[in-house]
Amino acid sequence: MPGGRTSDKHSGTPARQLLFSEALQHSRPPSSASGPQPATQTCTMAGPTQEATMNRILQEISAVGRRLEGMDNAITSLTVETKSMRLDIAGFQSRVSGLEQRVTNVEGHITTLQDRDQELLYLHSKLIDLEDRRRRDNIYFFRFPEHSFLLKGDPS
Q: What is the C-alpha to C-alpha distance for residues 90 and 75, in angstroms, rounded to an integer?
């Protein structure tokens, strides 16, 4: 697979990929000269197999270029979407912060109302007790003399 990552089947370690220039050197037939070759060679005439190889390489390069353009467009659209999401998230964060503040305020009011409810219950029980005492203190017995309530054995 051109441009793909290959791995050694036995060890599972990634194999070394050939560079484009190395692949060209491997595809060339060995020269008849026995000495070291110069870094640049001038090609006087290309054979039909070399021309076909060059055409195939050019086709591969243009295919890779088209794929890169497609990836560039995809990256651009992802960048736009990411910016949009960041703006949405910033808006959500501000709304959540506002809601958290409101919940904190409501919790404070609930605590205050619970305290007032306890105070009202206490005051209500105190009011009932005071009303009962007032009623007991206002009881009058008619036709009974006050001293008749005293027991016979009581010295007072």
A: 22
